[in-house]
Amino acid sequence: MTNGGKSTLSRALQEQLPNCCIIAQDAFFKDDSVVPVDSHGFKQYDMLSALHMDRMMEEVEAWRRNPQAFMSSRYGATQLLPHVVNQQAFVLIIEGFLIFNYRPLNELMSRRYFLQIPYDTCKERRSSRVYTPPDPPGYFDGHVWPMYLKNRQEMEEMATDLVLLDGLNDREELLSTVLQQVTTDIEDLRQR
Question: Considering 26, 32, 38, 141, which one is annotated as catalytic?
């Protein structure tokens, strides 16, 4: 979902979790010149074909092979806490609007959170942001929202154990909910 709070929640989690990094789907958009246009003249950004999912998977696989080296190359040693590195506790947050619609990526996830907000809030938030290229008139109603509904239906058919979060809830409340679950998972892994 566009403008649901994914990036905000991801960054807040990263600040709270040691040895944690984010791979964001927005970094993998194809060049604007190759994104297809629909019959209404709208660029089709809300489709997997508009993304370099192969490159995103390469990043995820690099992290899976050696999270410590991946994080060191991305953030330097400052993000790594020695007492946690020794216990092999690394967290990867995969953030994006179509991550659950891409089966190879979806199958790798141990936790799945989906932030949802109502139409009016989504449209208001979307209109307050600046995009490059900018949204043309009618883009939200003519493309963004219909594609969200289509992608959401596909996601619900594909993703298991999906936790739906209300993106209108207080940010701290959302952070606390997710952080508690992830922290419990980390402790469970350490005890194995």
Answer: 26
pLDDT digits (tens, 9 = 90+) for 15-65: 999 889 999 999 999 999 999 998 988 899 999 999 999 999 999 999 999
Cβ(86)–Cβ(74) below 8 Å: no
Query: How many Cβ atoms are within 10 Å of 38's Cβ, its own excluded?
Result: 12
Question: Can you say whether the dihedral through the CA atoms of 183, 173, 163, 151 is positive or negative?
Answer: negative
Query: Is 26 one of the annotated active-site residues of the chain?
Result: yes
pTM for the structure as a whole:
0.90
What is the helix (H) or strand (E) element at residue 41, kind and residue range? none
Cis peptide before 18 (omega within 30 of 0): no
Q: Residue 105 in contact with residue 56, Cβ under 8 Å?
A: yes
